[in-house]
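Supplementary notes for students who missed Thursday's class. We covered one full example, reproduced here. Read the sequence, then the structure, then the short commentary at the end.
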Amino acid sequence: MASNNESRIPDPVSPNEIPGLRRRAEDRLVKQSGEIDRTQLPDVDRIVQELRVHQIELEMQNEELRRAQQELEASREKYFDLYDLAPAGYLSADNKGLITEANLTIATLLGKERSYLVGQPMTRFIHRNDQNVYFLCCRKLAETQEKQTCEMRMLANDAVPFWVRIDISTGLTGDGKTNVRAAVIDISESRRLSDILDKNEKKYHLLFENMSEGAAYCKMLYDKNGTPADFVYLDVNTAFVHLTGLHNIEGKRVTEAIPGIKDLHPELFEIYGRVATTGRPEKLEIEFKPLEAWLSLSVYSTEKDHFIVIFDNITRRKKHEKIIEDLNARLQDKVIKIELANEALETYSYSVSHDLRAPLRHMSGFADLLQKRMKDRLDNDEARYLALISDAAKKMDRLIADLLNYSRLGQQELKKSEVDLNQLVDESVSQLAIITTGRDITWNLGKLPVVYGEQSLLKLVFVNLISNAVKFTSTRSSAEIEIGCETAADEDICFIRDNGVGFSMEHEDRLFGVFQRLHPESKFEGSGIGLANVRRIMALHGGRTWAEGAVDKGATFYFTLPKVEKRTVS
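Structure (token representation):
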């Protein structure tokens, strides 16, 4: 669309109008010349021809002008489209700070109609805490006449702040006046991400500083052949300084901070260079000679030619490992010696069972034969001597048999299954009926659990403990024996309690020893190996054994069995 200042293009002349133009031209010439002879008039045909040529030129110029005007209109429309729909908001303000022009983008950002913005002060749409930023930016623009950039908060819908970057510059209006032009870009999302990054950076730096392990961020340096030659400390944490004793080493090369390290530990340069180049992390333990300490190292790469090494002093752990290694070696030595001793014990057991027990049986047998043959010819002392010899031989044979059974307990493989302890108690009590007949014994039998173990060995435990309770209550006119179980989180605790002669707790540690007796054999018979068998059997089942008692106030013997998942007997 043409403006008022543009020249008006003359309308084209139609060919039908040319004769009329010719007559009018002749009449005008006649009036001007008076009574001039018409033969003396100029060549009207020539003039008309010139007019026609001029008309054609005018038509061509007119067409060119129309085409130029159309192109101008198209360019203006394209310009206004670009202006209005640009990703950046555009504002123009006069020297009083009033908005004179605004595009559609800034109107959308501010949540206002574009017509509303015109005439409004620019500061109305700037957060009051950031208006000084804008004024300072404008002042620098006035002083330098160079484009200025600042970041501040503007207000959407008069209330909601959002971050923008604004570029301001000066320009001229059509009437030659100076104005301020501003390009506004919404940077709220980038500011949000930047804030998140800042928070994360602070958080990770706080973590970096407060790690108990030492940490160093370094850049690898290479020689002309690309071989790792040195590295620079870019940043270290407090623990690094504490563990190494090195201060103010940021920016220094390791060969400066720790002279001679390349000769002492060339493998470190190889490992660090490999991690910095490939990006693959590595871990290692090293006896670091400059610190005379063992270090555990974890090496990572954050970017090419850079690496982070995190380390801890493990000298104490290494010393403990050495102690454990020495103990294991000594233990292995003892195991070998024990194995040799077990072999010797097996040899001894075989010898005892075959070579020693045979003469004992001969002694017992011949003593019995002498008693029968010499029965009428022996006086009382001689008969008593032969009886003592026979009883001693038989007792010795029982001791040897018990000792052999005890030694075999640790060698056999357990055949475990589900075992009802109530059934074992009933069988054990019935089995001991021959020695309890005629006695006044009150049995208090509680409910016992079903456990997992070797049935024959567990029965031997009950037989030993119940027979002990029967034996050591024999001096009581009325005996009380209680058998029960208590349940703990991970084990069942079984007990056999009696009101017998009891024992002193000072000697509790002797109860479960081989051939250890707290009472004279003349009062209570036994080989002194039953409780030792009980402890060994429970140890094989992963349980514990102990006893509590007092002199003349009875005793309680405990044993435990670990709880296991319910199993199905095959």
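Commentary. The chain has a mean pLDDT of 81. The radius of gyration is 58 Å. If anything here is unclear, bring it to office hours.
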